[in-house]
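assembly run, all chains below
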Amino acid sequence: MRIAALLSVVLALVLITTPALAAGVKVAVAANFTEPAKVIAARFKARTGHDATLSFGSSGQFYAQIANGAPFEVFLSADRERPEKAEAEGLAVAGSRFTYAVGRLVLYSKTPGRVDAKGAVLKAGRFNKIAIADPKTAPYGVAAVETMRKLGVYETLAPRLVQGASITQAYQFVDTGAAELGFVALSQVVAVKGGSRWVVPATDHTPIDQQAVLLKTGANSGAARAFMSFLKGPEARAIVRKYGYEVP
Amino acid sequence: MIEARFEGRLGDFTLDVTLSTPASGVTVLFGPSGCGKTTLLRCLAGLTRLSGRLRVGDEVWQEGRAFTPPHRRGVGYVFQDAALFEHLSVRGNLLYGRKRAGLGADAEFDRLVHLLGLEALLERGPGKLSGGERQRVAIGRALLSEPRLLLMDEPLASVDAARKAEVLPYIEALRREARAPVFYVTHDVTEAARVGDRILLMRDGRLVETAERPEPDAAEAGERRWLRERLRRLGAEELAAELAVGGTPLTVAKLAVEALHAERNTNETPENSR
Amino acid sequence: MSSLADIIWLTLKLAGVTTAILLLVATPLAWWLARSRAWWSEVAGALVALPIVLPPTVLGFYLLIALGPNSVLMAPLQAMGVRTLAFTFEGLVIGSVVYSLPFAVQPLRNAFQAIGERPLEAAATLRAAPLDAFLSVAVPLARPGFVVAAVLAFAHTVGEFGVVLMIGGGVPGETEVLSIEIYKLVEAMDWGRAHLIAGGLLAFAFAVLLSLLLFDRRTGRPRP
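ok done. output:
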């Protein structure tokens, strides 16, 4: 009996003291930011000792979960619309919202020589299918449509559009050759060799601002606030750039 | 003439039979359970295939590698469990084979329906029939398909004593009615005696004895004695004997076995048995 | 963008065509699986059941490749100028047939197995050739299996999401189906409309299931 009591005391002490030493933070991450997020989390742990537990998925799915009480403390969205809405709905800590990465749109084809450096292939139009992310649900899709309108080719190309439910899908259509070319994220092809691409000038479309926000559930968590700070810092920004995004 | 030779193994059972019988009348395949009589019947039908040969009249149904499949033989088979088509009415069942023989609900159909007492049951589903009724439908269905051979596998085995008494007269009538030769499997001595023109006794997959029915006007007691003598000579004590006294079946079992033992030792014939 | 009515019609069309094809394809397959004693029929059975355990997006991904321009299977079609079957109604039908195949085969296989040998032996002795016996005895006796197979295949295809996500592409009139529409509405945070459509889908599925099962009950009597 004495031993049991002693063990309980020891256990309690361990449990009480552990949070102060190294806490965890639950982060919801937009799927397109998966690779850089993992690297950032590793560096975060090395710097602060805190564990960032990452969940990957679509921003819309995360928003729905957060609105229904999911225990995420930080939300890294693929757009700005959802963090704005979270703030407006009182789900996020006011003033914590900031842009952690700016996406760049790329017109890409697996076939070398198909896409020229100026995107004139869109006007010449010799292809069957062109893939984009669904503009209703993904900012890259919206940007793709804006780019096509600016070039005056949207009406002509509309019948040949195939929409992926997410930017990941759009990329899959292009990668498997089902669509000859498509508008994908630079972060998806930054490390891919071969093929042909046109990096769309950022001025051709609404900026694809990917914003992060501290959720109410994480308001009192030192680790959560530390993560948000780290994400704004120079080390994280360098990682973000390395993976094909820009930083404001 | 029907000439058949079958030999082969099914699991751990070996069948080795050569038979030759006239292509008319009722041939009873008689023996204890497991002796191979159903297997032999299935070989005649082509439902089980063992190596051998089979000639029925002037048709060769099996020889060497040649094998006529069951649906081209025209065998009417009455299964032990009737095997009626549950999705068809009694009428549908009766006409199934007949339609495929190119005939329909003609005079012959009416006659057999009447003979088997099935008029009132024609529109019923098989699920609403008693055991005896199901067997009568099964017999009618087989007969109406204009079979070349009629094969009956213990049709009264799953029928109780009272039903048996009801159905047996129909089967006896078959001896007159069936224009095709009949093979009738049973382990019941009463049925064998009443139904068969000849009895083939089987044991352990082999045919061990053939007995011809004595003259038609032999007394019933004479029939019984004839059959018991055959059984005794073969030392077939282990067969439980059911002897009919005045048309009512009686189970003799152990007493009969002892009596048969005693007979063999003393060569005396008891007048009746209990 | 299609109207909601167009999307519903396309979904029903996809489920209907898929179910019809499946009944034709699954019947001989289920019959063979039910009766074959060859050891490799078990291998075939496991292959048929694969879509049950594979995540639909995995299945969809491999379909995307199999129906695409680099696929060996597409070679004959490519000769006729067809680049890919992804993003087409026909491609979705192929995907749905693969995805719902086990849901049609399994009930049919069980139904055929339950019949046993006896009724077919009886039919053979009554002069029915094998195909005749199959159509006049096996199929009617397996009717409950057919009903279940049809209902499951239809309902499963209406609810199909992962596969369509991968090979659909949201082409109006070709691949815009209800399940994707609901997903998109949730993604775009238009939850009100999503509730409405999902609720309608649920009610419809329930009505279809109920009426099919009632129909089967009422016409299940033996026929002459």
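The interface with chain B takes residues 118-119, 121-130, 132-133, 136-137, 140-141, 143, 221-224 of chain C (CB under 8 Å).

The longest helix of chain C spans residues 4-35.

not gonna interpret more than that til we talk
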